[in-house]
Amino acid sequence: MELWRRNLWVLWLAQVLAMVGMSAVVPFLPLFVRQLGINDPVAVHHWSGYVFSAPFLTAIIAQPIWGALADRYSRKTMVVRAVIGLAVAFALMGFSRNVQELFLWRLVQGGISGFIAATLGFVVAETPHAFRGYAIGVLQTSQSIGAVIGPFLGGIISHYAGMRIVFWIMSSVCVISSALVIALVREKSTSRAQRTDSATVWNNLQTAWQIPGFMVALACITLSQMGTIMPNPQMPFYLESLGIPMSQLQIVTGTLVGITGLATLVAAPQIGKVVDKHGPRVVVMSSATAAALLLIVQGVACSVETVFFSRGFLGIALAGLVPALNTFVSTRVPEGRQSGMMSLASSAMLLGNLISPPVGGWIAAHGGLRLMFFIAASCVGSVPVLLWWLRRRHVRRANAQG
Q: What are the tens digits of pLDDT across the range 306-327?
């Protein structure tokens, strides 16, 4: 087996384990906040939001730094560092004595982890250009598998053994993940002279501004993430408004999330091959258009069946949108800067994750749940418009120079 394929599948398995760990912990954080002594309903909501958002705050800053170090020294080392950092953060969360400590350890998680960004940078650097779309699509499936398996395992463990045990078991799972990477992943031999000594965060940011279309691509990542993530925290309330009784709300919401993840899991590798064959721009524009329309369908839905139908197809659209956007960015990355520049893409995605829940909550509270879906659709729908504008500007410049 070719080295890049072997590395890809080892990293895929390692990322499945890490994503199972993250997905097993996150859904139950509000319950752990209550367990740590926060009983007032308003305070529980506030602290749950703070604890949920904490890793994004530090990761947006830290990931470009880790990415630059990966380009200068070793990408494999940064992958191992990231998953061990996740294991350490989980273990510390399990020892939290109050919600302030939990918040602190979540900040630490964002600062010392960043496993998804590290693996993405490694795969982009090590995979031949002709197979990058496929490889990024395969990595996307690991996140979907983790999102399906993690909450199920976390729910069982927390029910029978308690929430603290979930943190410690998932920390051990991340240690196993790091052992797989250490033992089986092989980085291409790169001489010191080939390393990019100028690969600093500031230099990467300067380069990003100078590369035509790179910043527009980052904006597309943020907007697409905002649009696709925005409805998720409000979905239980939307299902309730459609007539789902409280006794069934959790299982229906979980099934809905699982359908979206399953559709992404099945479609991502195949769509990745389409990206390699026809280019990322075509896939991004078609996937973003489809995702926007499906969000509108959810916003006008009068039945739960319609929401289920549209969420399933939304999973297929996301299987094309996220990997194709990352592939689109990777085509503009200079050699030797893959990890640092792709970490900027990861920070753009994290920014979308950070902004969308409070924005969606504010819109839902003041304008209604259906309006929130239309705003989410406009965020995703702006992506093909931006890419069309970018292509038109490029053609104009080419004609002016010609």
A: 999 999 999 899 888 888 888 8
